[in-house]
Design brief:
The complex is a heterodimer of chains A (267) and B (994). Chain A is built from four helices and eight strands, in the order H-H-H-E-E-E-E-H-E-E-E-E. By secondary structure, chain A is an alpha+beta fold. In chain B, helix 12 runs parallel beside helix 15 and helix 38 packs parallel to helix 40. Classes of the chains: A alpha+beta (267), B mainly alpha (994). At the A-B interface, helix 2, helix 3, strand 2 and strand 3 of A face helix 25, helix 27, helix 29, helix 32 and helix 35 of B. Chain A: This is Vacuolar import and degradation protein.
């Protein structure tokens, strides 16, 4: 869920009041308030976390578990809700269609987003690709997306993606140009929430039809996608990366103009 | 003095030995025995003469003197006014046997004795016959009596002077299983043979002056020792008559030789004696005691009270037995000061009430309804003319007994806890707390007086901790000045008292920001030993050596943290409290293992930051470890290692550990996917799934919570959860006997029924759907809410056929009721359900709802939800927001439909006005939904035309201006949607102009 327009006012209700320590009268130097020091680096992150959860957060807390009476009836341990969140066209149920090009061949691709959790900077969905192998004319995989921002940096640091690979891939997105020099700097965090362009990594994990199936002839999902999504146009572009596959396989997707919105919520 | 019962296993107590005329009359020695906790005396005979006296006394003693009848190998006869000792004869036996047979038949005796052999030279070296003759006759007399004892299944009380190993041989040859060798004077190696046959050895007080006996006791295992006095012989001092009260001397000496506590020796020897003689715990005729307690003679009452006190300690059966009599009413009467009862009796009465109440819910109910609580509270009042400090010191014993009793009563859930808030009582409690805590801090000396003061302070604090549950109570206590004495106690340095103070702070600060803040900032009043802030002390105590202290401190700080006083994330909570709790999880201490997971759950359950911190501090593997090991041990065998109480206690606490670790895992996994993944990788799923079928409803409930948290993930639903087979057990729980478990199971199924869950089909087909529909009619609101939630989730992204199937069962009529339910939360889910029904490309889905519910009815409801949300609600919780968004999105979805559907909306000016008004709502998600309303109302494509009146209506409502304002919205998504809407609106305007 997006943040309320009156964010600062909304925040005061959820921000606990600091203890005034009579010993020092100065929270920053009081040894009991060391947290301020700990926080300096990730302060922005925390604030963002608070903001994205703010609209979800409920003031009413479920009562203490330890203090409940032995015969007290209770069903839920917390009243915190886990509502779906939305970022432009990235919302549960949202669909995208397009192609993935590998050399001269291209394959039809359809993506359905299943869950978006902006507080965790993550998203997941299904990726359907047609005609990849004769045995499986259609393959659907489950993927998880890391949204580049305070929680996930541009540097991948896993999936066999070295820094130079990150660089060569991100650089192909024109929207990345402003960050060519800064993306690797300490303390740099891309604030996806306010930007037109949202960068992501999509990593496929298993086949939806059979999650136990580890490998398929002629098709692989060992790599991952570098993704750039533009909110104003609802377009997704991406590059598939796997050190043993052909590089820069190009994914382009258009949003399926769905105008009605269902809703589910994890209990 | 020990609280246990001493059994004198061998004495010669009868009128003959303790004549009424002497200083040591029977009455005197029995009274002093009783005061020394010698509660049973086995009095044995030597021959016909004393046997009848022993039997007479036993019959009058109310079970305190048990008779043993036997013919001694040495007989004392008088000749020429002189007592002469001689060896026993066949004639003696002939004369004696009828009495012994009669006693056995009448079950008048607890053992056969005193019997045995005595090969002392002055006995067996007679003038008439050779030594062997006397020995042989002694053997025959002994054998005969052994025979009778074995036949009657009675133990033998054996004399063996200078014949230790012969006596043991005789016993072994006759196959005797139960025997005590009294005042054994043989070699320790011989005695060990007796031990091998299971015989006991009773130790007289003369051991203090007998190196041989000391050596013997040092060798023999304490499991085969008994206490005796052989009164009037074998006393601690030579030439002084012995008496049963000296049995304690034997116990002391054994304790010294064995390096044990005296109380432990007494307890073990008591158990040994009970085993040997078959004395039940109910040895005292309890009717007599009950009778005696009502006596008008205070001394009688005092003795009876002592009997009760000693027999009920730690004995549930006894407690229940006494509680069934009207003894509790009598105790409460004794407590009343106006009844002119002595202080001693009142103290005893309070002590016994405390003992009754300890750990026994049923008796607590009884005590409470007998009116004990006000009486005990009255006992806390201090004399008005003395300073509280002095008054407390003068009344320490009464205060200790009364506060201990009150603590025991208030520890039970069956007690009524409001009485202490009577101003009179509250005032007393405060006086006591102030007086005790200031005396402690002033008086650094560790003496008995201080210990008692600390005890009263601790118990009073525990009472407060247990009685403080509501906000009003917290405030009242705070206003009465509870914080300074608690702070003083917290700094007192007495561990138990500090724990009690911590408990009290936990109760006071729970969800109370003002008291939390006041407590943290308080300092111990001068002359405080530390003078530091309470928060600092609490954090120090989190790092204390004692596990219980660490747990109490962590609990307290968790409650304070939950009161929102710390700026989050508060590093001390993350860096000190959380790791302490995680370390405590690994302690091999049942109480800690039981509590720590629950405290951790409280600490993390409402905060994503704390869940992250718990993850980073490796809480999940520790919790998983506990769950896995407690599940495994329980499955494999019922002989468990945790805990020290009875088997029942262990199983119960293991169940608690399982329940609480499941709850903690559920709490840690609520919001973060990495937590869920780690928990699943720690192999908790098999245990969790089997816990779903536990026989314990609390464990089933906890397992449901855990499944619910783990299933908040598309990835895990599609993989581990389907593999673990959660569906079957969860569906079964929909029929659970406990509605709470039903509701929790339904909650978990809410996730399993989602579009992307591979278990959706099974849940629907295996009775899930039918049950969800049924439960929407439940009286239980939690169950009802989860049922509607399930249906809402089920209809997300559903096809027309599924929608129709669900609605055939639920009925539109009932859906209308749900939309108007008293609970806003239910309204919200019902509205979302409608939103999902009208969602999608199928226009017939909207037709179904329009005709099923009635177009006007539906739009009336939506209109109402939109206008209800106008109302400003002052109490902070704006519930109407819950229904606003689903109502707006229902309209968005309807507006996607055919032109008829759009026309229906355009005919509702109230609805349209509200949409326009919400375009400047403070919540961005609401603003976005209004933009979508406009986009869909003005959408034109090849299939559907925009209703011609649309432009005029929207224009008159000022949509254009609003959209222009939204173009400058701080939220990017709102700007983007507003731009689209405006673009369409303008093209309508163009069409209009053409």
């Amino acid at each position: 869920m997006p943040i309320p327009s009156t964010a600062p006012a909304g925040l005061t209700t959820t921000t606990p009041l600091p203890i005034i320590c009579p010993a020092c009268k100065d929270a920053s130097s009081c040894p009991k308030h060391r947290c301020n020091k700990v926080l300096t680096k990730s302060c922005e992150t925390v604030e963002r976390e608070l903001k994205t959860r703010a609209s979800v957060e409920q003031p009413r807390r479920a009562p203490s578990l330890a203090c409940r009476a032995a015969d007290e009836q209770w069903v839920d341990i917390s009243n915190q809700r886990l509502k779906s969140t939305q970022l432009g066209g990235l919302y549960p149920g949202s669909k995208f269609k397009g192609v993935q090009k590998s050399g001269k061949t291209s394959y039809e691709v359809a993506v359905k987003i299943q869950h978006v959790d902006l507080a965790e900077s993550s998203m997941c969905g299904y990726l359907n690709i047609k005609g990849l192998t004769t045995e499986f004319p259609e393959l659907t995989t489950f993927f998880e997306a890391e949204i580049i921002g305070p929680k996930h940096s541009f540097l991948t640091r896993k999936w066999q993606a070295e820094e130079q690979f990150d660089y060569t891939h991100w650089k192909r997105f024109p929207a990345f140009q402003p960050y060519l020099k800064t993306f690797n700097q300490d303390g740099f965090a891309y604030d996806f929430y306010d930007k037109d362009f949202v960068f992501m990594r999509w990593k496929e994990h298993f086949l939806v039809s059979d999650h136990h199936l580890r490998s398929i002839d002629g098709a692989s999902y060992d790599g991952f996608y570098y993704i750039c999504y533009q909110r104003s146009t609802n377009q997704i572009t991406g590059y598939y990366f796997h050190h043993q596959s052909e590089w820069f396989q190009h994914l382009t997707l258009e949003h399926d103009n769905e105008r009605s919105f269902g809703n589910y919520e994890f209990r | 003095m020990s609280d246990y019962c001493i059994i004198d296993c061998h004495a010669h107590i009868h009128e003959g030995n303790f004549p009424a005329s002497s200083n040591n009359s029977l009455e005197v020695i029995l009274e002093s025995a009783y005061k020394a906790n010698v509660q049973i005396i086995v009095s044995v005979s030597e021959g016909l003469g004393d046997a009848t006296q022993v039997l007479k006394l036993a019959s009058q003693s109310q079970g305190r003197v048990k008779a043993g009848v036997g013919l001694h190998p040495v007989q004392t006869v008088s000749s020429n006014n002189e007592s002469i000792e001689r060896s026993v004869t066949q004639d003696d036996l002939k004369e004696f046997l009828p009495l012994l047979r009669k006693c056995i038949a009448n079950q008048e005796i607890c053992c056969v004795g005193e019997v045995g052999l005595d090969f002392s030279p002055h006995i067996v070296r007679g003038k008439e016959f050779p030594e062997e003759h006397y020995r042989e006759i002694q053997r025959q007399v002994f054998k005969k009596q052994i025979e009778l004892a074995v036949d009657a299944n009675l133990p033998l009380n054996v004399h063996s002077r200078s014949a230790g190993h012969y006596a043991i041989e005789e016993l072994q040859n006759a196959g005797v299983k139960r025997a005590v060798l009294h005042a054994f004077d043989g070699k320790a190696s011989h005695a060990m043979k007796g031990v091998e046959s299971g015989y006991y050895f009773s130790v007289p007080p003369s051991i203090v002056r007998s190196p041989q006996k000391q050596k013997l006791v040092a060798t023999l295992p304490v499991s085969h020792l008994l206490l005796e006095t052989d009164s009037p012989a074998l006393g601690p001092n030579k030439n002084e008559d012995n008496q049963p009260s000296n049995a304690y001397v034997s116990a002391q000496e054994i304790a010294r030789l064995k390096d044990m506590e005296v109380s432990e020796v007494i307890k073990i020897t008591e158990e040994n004696a009970r085993k040997l003689f078959g004395f039940l715990m109910t040895f005292t005729k309890f009717e007599d005691v009950v009778h005696q307690i009502h006596s008008a003679d205070p001394n009688q009452v005092f003795i009876a009270l002592k009997t009760v006190k000693n027999s009920i300690i730690g004995n549930r059966t006894k407690k229940a037995q006494y509680a069934q009599s009207d003894i509790i009413n009598r105790l409460v009467d004794l407590l009343a000061s106006e009844n002119n009862v002595s202080e001693d009796l009142r103290i005893q009465a309070a002590t016994i009430l405390g003992s009754f109440a300890h750990g026994n819910d049923e008796i607590v109910s009884q005590i409470v309804s007998a009116g004990a609580v006000p009486r005990l509270l009255n006992a806390l009042s201090l004399p008005p003319n003395t300073s509280p400090a002095i008054a407390v010191q003068q009344n320490l014993k009464m205060l200790e007994a009364a506060t201990r009793a009150l603590k025991a009563i208030y520890s039970s859930s069956k007690s009524y806890k409001k009485d202490i808030y009577d101003p009179k009582h509250l005032n007393n409690i405060m006086k006591i707390l102030h007086a005790t805590t200031s005396s402690i801090s002033e008086d650094a000396e560790h003496n008995a007086q201080t210990a008692s003061l600390v005890m009263v302070a601790e118990l009073t604090t525990s009472i407060v901790a247990r009685c403080c549950t509501t906000l009003e109570e917290q405030t009242l206590l705070g206003d009465s000045g509870i914080i300074p004495p608690l702070v003083a106690l917290l700094h007192s340095g007495y561990a138990k008292a500090q724990e009690a103070a911590m408990d009290a702070f936990s109760s006071l600060c729970r969800e109370n920001i003002d008291i939390s803040r006041a407590s943290l900032n308080a300092r111990a009043y001068p002359p405080a030993p530390f003078g530091q802030m309470t928060l600092t002390t609490m954090l120090d105590l989190v790092r204390d050596k004692g596990q219980n202290m660490r747990l109490a401190a962590a609990t307290c700080l968790t409650n304070i943290y939950r009161a929102d006083v710390f700026p989050e994330p508060f590093s001390d909570i993350v860096l000190v409290v959380l790791p302490t709790l995680i370390k405590l999880l690994k302690e091999d201490n049942t109480q800690v293992q039981e509590r720590a997971p629950l405290i951790m759950a409280d600490l993390v359950k409402d905060s994503e930051t704390m869940q992250k911190a718990a993850f980073e501090a490796d809480a999940i593997p520790s919790l998983a470890n506990i769950l896995v090991s407690v599940s495994k041990e329980h499955d494999e065998n019922n002989e468990n290692k945790i805990g020290v109480q009875g088997a029942g206690g262990i199983v119960v606490s293991k169940e608690k550990v399982k329940e609480n670790s499941l709850i903690a895992l559920a709490a840690v996994c609520l919001l973060r996917e990495e937590c869920r993944t780690q928990a699943i990788n720690c192999k908790i799923l098999p245990c969790t799934v089997s816990a779903l079928s536990s026989t314990n409803p609390a464990v089933r409930l906890a397992a449901c919570q855990c499944v619910k948290s783990l299933s908040r993930s598309v990835r895990h639903l599609r993989t581990h959860l389907v593999d673990a087979g959660v569906t079957g057990p969860l569906l079964k729980l929909l029929d659970d006997e406990s509605p709470v478990v039903q509701a929790a199971a339904c909650g978990s199924l809410c996730n399993l029924i989602l579009d992307f869950s591979p278990m959706k089909k099974t849940v629907i087909e295996d009775g899930g759907l039918a049950n969800f529909v049924k439960f929407t009619h439940s009286e239980n609101t939690a169950l009802k809410l989860n049922a509607i939630w399930s249906l809402k989730n089920l209809l997300y992204s559903a096809d027309t056929e599924t929608k129709r199937t669900v609605m055939r069962q639920l009925s539109y009529e009932y859906l209308i009721d749900l939309l108007n339910d008293a609970s806003v939360e239910i309204q919200e889910q019902a509205l979302d359900l409608v939103r999902n029904l009208v969602c999608g490309k199928q226009k017939e889905d909207i037709d179904d709802v329009f005709s099923g519910m009635g177009e006007t009815v539906l739009l009336d409801i939506l209109e109402k939800k939109l206008s209800n949300s106008n109302m400003v609600i002052d109490d902070g919780e704006d519930n109407s927001l819950l229904t606003l968004e689903p109502a707006l999105y229902t309209l968005v979805n309807i507006a996607v439909g055919s032109s008829q559907h759009r026309e229906a909306l355009l005919k509702r000016p109230e609805i349209l006005q509200n949409i326009v008004r919400y375009m400047s709502h403070e919540k961005a998600s609401i603003r976005i939904s209004t933009a979508w309303c406009i986009i869909n109302l003005t959408w034109a494509d090849s299939e559907e035309k925009v209703p011609p009146e649309c432009y005029e209506i929207l224009k008159d409502l000022g949509v254009e201006e609003k959209l222009r304002a939204m173009e400058n919205d701080p939220e990017r998504d709102v700007r983007d949607r507003a731009r689209t809407a405006l673009c369409q609106f303008n093209s309508l305007s163009d069409m209009q102009e053409e």
